[in-house]
Structure formats: C-alpha cells, structure tokens
Amino acid sequence: MAYVRFGRALAAIVMVTAGVGLGTPAMASGADPTEPTPGPCAYTPTPEEPAARPVGLPPDPRHTPSVGTVEVLLRTNLGQIPLVLDRAAAPCTVQSFLHLVRHRFYHRTVCHRLTAYPTLKVLQCGDPSGTGEGGPGYRYGDELPTGLPPAPTDPTGERRVYARGVLAMANAGPDTNGSQFFLVYADSALRPNYSIFGTVTPAGLATLDRVAAGGVAPTPEDPAPVDGAPALTTRFKTAHVRH
C-alpha cells in the first residue's frame, strides 16, 4: 500500500487530460494481527506496510452507522479547516477517519503534496511520515461515488468532476484506502476511483486557498513545479471531532 503510487496515478491522469513505516500497528485486544475485522467494513491489517503511528484497527460493528453527518476540525498553522463527514456517502470511510482522529493519528502531521495542474488541484494529507508512503497499518474497500458530472475537459468521458470542497480518500489502487486523503480546492477531473466522504466548509476553503496561493515548493530540478510539497508548509496541529 505504497501511497506514492497514488501520486503517479494522478500525474498520469493529468498528462493524458491536459496533453501533457515507523512502527508496528497496535491491534485491538484479542484481534488476529493478520485477519480482517469481522464486520462489513473488513478493515484488513497490512503487516507488510506497518503503521506510521500505531492505532490498531477501527471498530467494525455489524451495522455500520450510515446516517447523518459528523463535524471534524483540522487546526493547522495556516488556519482552521473544518470538515463535514457524510456517513451515508461512505460509512466505512467515515468510521475509519473518525477512528484515526480520535487516536490522534493526524496530530502534528504535514500535508505532503499540492497539485496545481490545470485539471487537478488538490492538497493531499494524512501521512505522519510526511513521505506520501505512510499509512495506518490497515486497508479497506472503496466506497466509490456515483452520479458525478462528466469532466468537460476530458473528451473521453471517463473522468468526472471532483468539485471544489470535496473531501476524498487517496489510494494506491482498488480497495487500498488507509489514512491519506485529499482536499479539492478547485474543480478537478479524475476517474471516479476515489471515495468521497465529506466536504470542506467555506472557512476551510479559505485556508486551502491560502495554501494554494503559495504554490508548490521549487526544487533544484524544477524551479516552477506544479506537483510537490506546498511552498507554505501546512501542518495539522490537532484534529478532533466537534461536538
């Protein structure tokens, strides 16, 4: 579950469209460290990809909550990013995300990737290692969106609009969701292969716009990149559920 593959996948999409582990996860008491949880979400340990921070497996009740919304607040060094999670859209994803928030998995982590392609504008976060390859020590299945409008920039009709304000999971291929997610700061064209599980509030978008305005950090190899670390380091101080 090397999340760097997500980056390559997105870069390839853009080229076509535009022409152009630190520790072993602490398992839940009594859980087999190699077996998926028995509920409908089947969170599956990834011993080959240890957790960047030990958190164990999320709860997996027989009846996963699938109604209502949950508010989460990401406090960053550049401002707040309030999120509204939608249980109906992706119940297993929301359940996992809340598990990670409650176990402080996202505390003191940086958003490692900003994209500024014409057809792809997202901020990617959720890896405590800061490398783009770290995860929570487990994976789970996709809960893919339906009904997204076709991307007008894609003549093939394969890509859909992930609209400004969308909150979605990053992945390394089918059914490899973990901890990394992306925040869409402008309408983007993607195949509908990424689970959407909530939205960014207007206050959060203001913070995202600030990050995006700073651009991508230049490197010796590329003084004007459109994909890489944000020039304005974006660090989560805390993440918590709002009551």
From TrEMBL:
List the protein's name.
Answer: Peptidyl-prolyl cis-trans isomerase
Q: Which InterPro entries is this protein grouped with?
A: Cyclophilin-like_dom_sf, Cyclophilin-type_PPIase_dom, Cyclophilin_A-like
Q: What EC number(s) is this enzyme filed under?
A: 5.2.1.8
The UniProt record lists the PPIase cyclophilin-type domain at 76-224
Q: Which reaction does it catalyse?
A: [protein]-peptidylproline (omega=180) = [protein]-peptidylproline (omega=0)
| Top-rank taxon, per record | Bacteria
Record family assignment: Belongs to the cyclophilin-type PPIase family.
Query: Under the GO molecular function aspect, what terms does this record hold?
Result: peptidyl-prolyl cis-trans isomerase activity
**Organism for this UniProt entry:** Pseudosporangium ferrugineum
Keyword list (alphabetical) reads:
Isomerase, Rotamase, Signal
What does this gene product do?
PPIases accelerate the folding of proteins. It catalyzes the cis-trans isomerization of proline imidic peptide bonds in oligopeptides.
